[in-house]
Amino acid sequence: MNTFHNEAEAGQIGSTVLMPGDPLRAKYIAEHYLTDVFCYNRVRGMNGYTGYYNGKKVSVQGSGMGVPSMGIYSYELFNHYQADTIIRIGTAGAVHRDVEVGQVIFAMGCCTNSNYTAQYHLPGSFAPIADYELLEQAVQAARAQHIPYKVGNVFCSDVFYEDSPGEKGLWEKMGVLVQEMETLSLYCNAARAGKRALSLLTVGSSMHHGGALTNEERETRLDAMIRCALSLVS
Q1: Exposed/middle/buried for residue 7 (C-beta within 10 Å: 0-12, 13-18, 19+)
Q2: What is the DSSP string of 81-97?
Q3: Most CB atoms within 10 A, among 151, 167, 186, 218?
């Protein structure tokens, strides 16, 4: 069952997997929220853990940064380890002026500058979207937990440091809320495998407003989003 990137054995990974980009965040979630935890993967430092939340088996696996890295790990989870549901729990930068640092964004759809979908040889442009049932449940959970949130379109970019300053601001004109780097390949892999996916994103910075989460806060201060994601585990 081992792959090039995951040393888990058959049955060690739950049907629902939470995927932060940072493997240290995966470790934090496993240690603070799950019981009976064991680490099933340490390949390339991209740790993965399985445990129980309210009696339900769940796994937490780092994805790394960028469309290709998320593409590799989510593909293997969907197609080699029989994961049915992957919930990304990441951070993003606000491109829309109505989005505040600290809010949670539910990615209903995903725009991109990536060429990832070219592999499918489709006669047009594919529009990656979230699983509606997961999205609806996440919104209900956020309301019940009084978590500030917005639902909408996100921009998944292959580029963090843009050569032409201000490019990301153009997406605001189309109502895009935030920029991040992993949702595209997750949603595409889920669609191709006939599985479920949803991206939850905590806004860590904004091009319009001051203040940003520190590196430490990005590892450990995203608990509202984490609790919301864990409430979706079935």
Answers
A1: middle
A2: S---EEEEEEEEEE-ST
A3: 186
Q: Cα 60 vs. chain centroid, distance in angstroms?
A: 11
Q: How many residues does the chain have?
A: 234
Reference 183, options 59, 86, 61, 57; nearest CA is 86
Q: Are strands 16-19 and 85-94 parallel, antiparallel or unpaired?
A: parallel
CA distance 189 to 86: 10
At 227, is the secondary structure helix, strand, or coil? helix
Integer Cα distance of 129 and 207 in angstroms: 25
Q: Which domains does the chain have, with CATH numbers?
A: 16-230 (3.40.50.1580)
Residue pLDDT, tens place only, 20-66: 999 999 999 999 999 999 999 999 999 999 999 999 999 999 999 99
Read off the pLDDT of residues 57-113 as tens digits, 9 standing for 90 and up: 999 999 999 999 999 999 999 999 999 999 999 999 999 999 999 999 999 999 999
How far is residue 193 CA from its own chain's centroid? 17
